[in-house]
Amino acid sequence: SNHKDTPEYKEFLKENEDWINDFGVFMAVKAANDGKSFIEWDEDIRLRKPAAVEKCMKEYKDTIDLYCFIQYEFFKQWEALRAYANENGIEIVGDIPIYVAYDSADVWTNPDLFVLDKDLKPIKVAGCPPDAFSEDGQLWGNPLYKWDYHKKTGYKWWKDRMAACNKLYDMVRIDHFRGFDEYYAIPFGDSTAKNGKWEQGPGFDLFDALNKEFGEMNIIAEDLGFITDTVKKLLEDTAFPGMKVLQFAFSPESESSYLPHNITDKNCVVYTGTHDNDTIMGWLESSKEKTVKQAKQYMHATDAEGFNWTMIRTAL
C-alpha cells in the first residue's frame, strides 16, 4: 500500500531504527510459526544467525512491514491522545514492569542480557517467595537480568528503555522496585516459588547511571509489600517518591502506616488502589464489616457523597 512512501512513515522508521526492525522480524517469524514461542523455532533463526535473519527479512518482507506500520499508527494515535491530555492539564503515568516477557523481541534480540543457557532456555526465573497470602509464593517465570553484564555495557539497555518511556509518558512508575535491591531467583522448571533464593540486584549503581544520562527523572517507585531496610535506603538514595494505598489503610486490628495522619513522608504518591486491588465499590462490598465501619468513620462518609468519592476526596 501507499504508506511506505510517505515522509512521515520513513521518518518514524528512522527514529526507531534501533528496535523496530528486530520487532518486525520477531513478529513475522512468530506468525509464520503459528504463534509459537521463539524457543521452538528452527535453530538458525532462534539463535539469530545472520544468514537466517537475512533470509526471513526477504521472505516475510510484507508481514514485517505490516507490523512496523501498525506500530507507526499506534504511536501516531498515542501522541495525539497524550497531547490532548497534556493540553487539558492531565499528565500520564506509565507503569513499567521490572521484567520483560521471556517470549519477546527483547530477549530474542539481546539474549546476553538475561540468565539463559546456550540454547537460550532460562536457567533461573523471577517470582517472589511464599508469604501469608500464598504458601507456594508467586512464580512469575520472567527471565532474570545478568546484572554484571548490564553494568559492563553502562546499562545501555536500561537507558534505551527509560528513553522510550520518557518519550511516551510524563511520569514513570516502576513496578517491583525492591527487585533492584535484591531479587528472588527460582530454578527454571520448578512448579512453585518455594525453592528460590534472594540475589543481589544492581542497587543505586543503575539509577546513578540513569541520572547521569537523563538528569532528574520523573519516577514513582512501587515500594509496596515487605520492604527491607536496604530497599528503604535505596529509595532514599534515589529520592523517588514511594506509594501509599488507601485500600490498605483500614484494619481495626492494627494502626496502619497508610492512614493519612500517619503519612509523615511527604515524598510519596497516594493511591486509592492499584492494578492489584479491587475497585473502591468492590472493596466496600468485599471487606469485613469492622473494616468498612472504621473507614466510613475515619473518612466522614455520607450516603449523599457516595463512598467512591469519599475515598477519592480523602486521597486528595
Enumerate the strands of the largest sheet in spatial order, edge to edge or round the barrel: 3-2-5-6
The secondary structure category is alpha/beta
Sequence of secondary-structure elements: HHHHHEHEEHHEEEHEHEEHHH
Shape: globular
Total number of strands: 9
Textual characterization of the structure:
This protein has 316 residues and is α/β, with parallel strands linked by helices. The protein contains 13 helices and 9 strands. It has helices at residues 7-15, 20-32, 43-46, 50-59, 61-87, 105-109, 147-152, 156-168, 204-214, 229-238, 280-286, 289-298, 307-315; strands spanning 93-96, 124-128, 138-143, 171-174, 182-187, 197-200, 219-221, 242-245, 268-271. It has a 4-stranded antiparallel beta sheet with strand order 3-2-5-6, with no helix packed on it. Helix 2 packs across helix 5 (61-87). The longest helix has 27 residues, at 61-87. The radius of gyration is 23 Å and the shape is globular. The termini are far apart.
Set out the fold topology.
Elements: H1 7-15, H2 20-32, H3 43-46, H4 50-59, H5 61-87, E1 93-96, H6 105-109, E2 124-128, E3 138-143, H7 147-152, H8 156-168, E4 171-174, E5 182-187, E6 197-200, H9 204-214, E7 219-221, H10 229-238, E8 242-245, E9 268-271, H11 280-286, H12 289-298, H13 307-315
Parallel strand pairs: 1-4, 4-7, 8-9
Antiparallel strand pairs: 2-3, 2-5, 5-6
